[in-house]
Amino acid sequence: MTNINGKAYAMNAITPMKPWKTPLLKLFFLVLGAVKPLQKDLKNLSFIHFARWVCIGRNAFPRLSDEQPTEELKYDYLLFISNFNGTWNQYIDAFSAVLYKGLDAIWLWSEKYPGSRPVTAFKRYISFVQFDTDYYYNAYPHSATNDVKAAIRVQSAFTKFAQTSQSLSPADFQEAWLSFQAAVSPDLGATGIAPIGT
Amino acid sequence: MANVSGSTYGLTTLSPIIEDNKLNLCHSMQIRWYLSQLPRDHRSPFAQLSSTYLARLVVMDDVVFVGHPACEEHLKSRYLLFETNFDGDLNTYLRRMATEAGEFVNAVWKHCVGFPGTDTVDAFITYMKTCQIETTFFFADVNDQTVESTLNALKTQAALAHFMEKHEGLPPADLQAAFGKFVERLHNAPPLPRGGDESRNIAQERRPHD
Amino acid sequence: MTRIDVSDIQGFALRGYNFPYARYLLLELAPAKQARALLRKLLNVVTTGERWDINNKPQSTVNVAFTHKGLEQLALPLASLLSFPLEFQQGMRARSDILGDSGTNAPERWDPVWREQYVHAWLAVNARTAEALEARSREMQQFIDETGGARLLQSQDAGAIRLHGKFSTSEHFGYTDGFGNPDFKGAERDCVPGQGKLTKRGEWEALATGEFLLGYADEAGELPVSPIPHLLGRNGTFMVYRKLHQNVNTFRAYLDAKGKHYQGGKEKLAAKFVGRWRDGTPLELSPDMADPTIVADPNQNTNFTYGEDPAGIRCPLGAHIRRTHPRDAFGFNGGLVNRRRIMRRGLAYGEYVPEGQPVSDSDERGIIFMALNASIFRQFEFVQQQWIEYGNDARLGNDKDLLLGNHEGKGKFVVQGTADHANPPFICGALPNFVELRGGDYFFLPSLTALAMIATGTVDPR
């Protein structure tokens, strides 16, 4: 299972687009970059560490020597790369359930895209255009992006508390300790090995 | 600049792989074989490149024909797709790849067209930038940390949960003293290993094939 | 309005009978010829979903379901057998690594009937009285003897726990159970607030029929995966059967020990474990005390959301009911949970021991957990894997469900709280396994039409 390292799954998908559509997609992303609703939804879903969409023009595949044959392509390609937590099915299901408008706006320019609803045809399409990762590195394999964000909140509260608490009287410390524990108590989940992907 | 989100840089490169019909094992297979043997945990070359969050290498054999009425078309070269997410700027990262992970970089990219090696760092940087494809839209869930600060936070979180559980109900003065010691102990504890210590031992690989 | 064909659907799929007595006959089927003869007998007595005449309620009910091995034994065409979903074909034993059924819950530790043999069919009798249960069971045995269609591997009794001389909906740990089954379109009762799915306006409406019955549109706007021919699947559903042993002594001792240190008190801690006080009052509605008027009111007892309690101060983020029916807890108006719902049909087994009396973990005691859903993979297995044995969706990392989790002594449960001494944060560590899996399998609960097709050997391959 080379697509998985710890709690992260590496997805790659490539879809063909008619070249006249590429500027429209880029325009969409440009506007999106400004208004950021997709960014907000992705943040709220909170199971993607990093993701990117890369438009590759039909003449943009790197050519490094004269001996390398020149590509002769009719289509531009949309490359999607994601580092997500959870299982493949969970990921696609979630996209289809709550992010379908954003997804459709991104992929409707691709050939034969069936739409993200109903989910079965969408899954078939994704698995068809997906290609597998050969090597995947993860700096913190035992942590999902939720775990990371929780830990950062804990660290921030902890740093403050550690700096201020030692000079308190024991009675004041006890009260401060209670407040500190209350503040970090939603963020104390264990890290570890993820369940088996399905 | 869509390659950047906050303090995180997202690099994407496509390097054409050498086609040589005379070889028994073609270059793309050699890359795949090498990568399949490469450790993925704290012994990974990316653990050396300490600013790397997540990185992948993928041999892209071809594009996909999605069916009529789309046209069938094929690539003339195979490409090595490299995706990495790291702290800081591109030049520094590429320089570190050449100088701190040169053996690995050479072992992989020597199968690619026009790869100049890593001996001349500037030539390597130029090569990688030639292969770079600009990201159209980049999403980073957390983009204001470093790998180091993240691992440090994860260490604190786990230790703190343990401390809280063990010291429930202690008298205030004892608790305060214990907490003081805990802060010091945590400060001196070794950092979590980048890449984890047993990431190959994932549950997935224990599942027999159906 | 979705119309469903109630006379073709087994009653068990549409409603909990709420009868206090039950017996599950676990059968090994004879070769197809005799087994079909048995099914033809059963066809006349299987209870459908038709409404009961108020003056003529049955004394007992009969329902039947098959494992994939059972359908093989009944000699369904290969094309049909292979068209069933993969997880059903594999059966629960082969899915143990996906489900987290390892260690004390591993198949090697199951009861012999699930470990050493293959259950082909589940024949269920529910009854109003002990006499009716026996009478109906005798009839079933007669059918088996007359046709030679099956061998009884085991008979599992279950039933409502009697408290103060009356049948209750309590389970062995002392919690009132049986709230919160999802409503779906076409089922007979109106949607009860809290039981279906949330609308954008924050109201509740019934889920799509296809989440629980094959042959109808589901929440994704398509028909659920179903065997071919379609008639074989339509009006049927899948059932998960799990015998869950309860370590009552361990539970009571753990609650006592931790309850001494928790400033909110033992009963409040018990409520924090589950998200309901032991009488059933939801913590979200009444965080400081049990309130019988809420429990008694169906418009209140499941009518709540977690949106106002994002940090788990009333109901902990990891409380059992918050994990398994998260409502709006994961955001997106519940959009991430509507396709993960299951219909529960559980009943207790074993003798109930009141609090304060000596009780042993090793006595046969627990719950026969049965869940109905259109897709075992997408619904039950997901809930078990992601929400019981894992915590990422609840933003709890690897922490597991306190009650059902396979902790093996290592887990923890965090009670979120405030600086208020009556509701402080608290960590329960070194969690033992309060519940252990003793076996079970995946079953297909066919429609009457499908049962007749199977019984007559007329399933037509495509």
Beginning-to-end CA distance, first to last residue of chain B: 45 Å
Distance between the termini of chain A: 11 Å
Major sheet of chain B:
4 strands, antiparallel
- Spans of chain A with pLDDT under 50 lasting ≥5 residues? none
Main interface: chain pair and counts: A-B, 98 and 92 residues
Number of domains of chain B: 2
Count, helices of chain B: 8
Q: What do the pLDDT scores of chain A average to?
A: 94
Radius of gyration of chain A: 22 Å
**Shape field of chain A:** elongated
Strand-pairing-aware structural class of chain B = alpha+beta
Helix/strand-derived category of chain A reads alpha+beta
Order of helices and strands of chain A: EEHHEEHHHEHH
Helix content of chain B: 40-55%
Q: What's the helix-strand series of chain B?
A: EEHHEEHHHEHHH
The helix content of chain A is: 40-55%
Write up this protein:
The complex is a heterotrimer of chains A (198), B (210) and C (462). Chain A is of the alpha+beta class and 198 residues long. Chain A has two domains: 4-61 and 71-129, Alpha-Beta Plaits (2-Layer Sandwich); 145-187. Chain A is 45% helix and 18% strand. Chain A contains seven helices and five strands; from the N terminus they run ββααββαααβαα. Chain A has helices spanning 22-35, 37-45, 88-98, 100-107, 119-129, 145-165, 170-184; strands spanning 4-5, 8-17, 48-56, 76-85, 135-138. In chain A, strands 1-2-4-3 form a four-stranded antiparallel sheet, with helices on one face. In chain A, β1 and β2 (8-17) form a beta hairpin. The termini of chain A are close together. Chain B is of the alpha+beta class and 210 residues long. Chain B contains eight helices and five strands, in the order ββααββαααβααα. Chain B has helices spanning 27-37, 45-48, 90-100, 102-109, 121-131, 147-166, 172-188, 203-206, and strands at residues 4-5, 8-16, 52-60, 79-87, 137-140. Chain B has a four-stranded antiparallel sheet, with helices on one face. In chain B, a hairpin with a 2-residue loop joins β1 and β2 (8-16). In chain B, α3 packs across α5. The longest helix of chain B is centred in the C-terminal third of the chain and has 20 residues, at 147-166. The mean pLDDT of chain B is 93. Chain C has two domains: 6-242 and 440-455, no CATH class; 247-340 and 354-369 and 386-439, no CATH class. Helices cover 24% and strands 19% of the residues of chain C. Chain C is globular, with a radius of gyration of 22 Å. The model of chain C has no long low-confidence stretch (mean pLDDT 95). Chains in contact: A-B, A-C, B-C. At the A-B interface, β1, β2, α1, α2 and β3 of A face β2, α1, β3, β4 and α5 of B.
